[in-house]
Amino acid sequence: MAATDLERFSNAEPEPRSLSLGGHVGFDSLPDQLVSKSVTQGFSFNILCVGETGIGKSTLMNTLFNTTFETEEASHHEECVRLWPQTYDLQESNVQLKLTIVDAVGFGDQINKDESYRPIVDYIDAQFENYLQEELKIRRSLFDYHDTRIHVCLYFITPTGHSLKSLDLVTMKKLDSKVNIIPIIAKADTISKSELHKFKIKIMGELVSNGVQIYQFPTDDEAVAEINAVMNAHLPFAVVGSTEEVKVGNKLVRARQYPWGVVQVENENHCDFVKLREMLIRVNMEDLREQTHSRHYELYRRCKLEEMGFQDSDGDSQPFSLQETYEAKRKEFLSELQRKEEEMRQMFVHKVKETELELKEKERELHEKFEHLKRVHQEEKRKVEEKRRELEEETNAFNRRKAAVEALQSQALPATSQQPLRKDKDKKKGSGWSSIYSVTIP
Amino acid sequence: MDPLRQSPSPSSSRASSPRTLPCEMLGYVGIEAVLDQLKIKAMKMGFEFNIMVVGQSGLGKSTMVNTLFKSKMWKSTMPGLGVPTPQTLQLQSVTHVIEESGVKLKLTVTDTPGFGDQINNDKCWDPILGYINEQYEQYLQEEILITRQRHIPDTRVHCCVYFVPPTGHCLRPLDIEFLQRLCRTVNVVPVIARADSLTIEEREAFRHRIQENLKTHGIEVYPQKCFDEDINDKILNSKIRERIPFAVVGADREHIVNGRCVLGRKTKWGIIEVENMAHCEFPLLRDLLIRSHLQDLKDITHNVHYENYRIFRLNESHVLPRGPGWVNLAPAPASVPAPAGPQATPGPPKVGWWAKDNSDEEC
Question: ipTM of the assembly?
Answer without folding.
Answer: 0.73
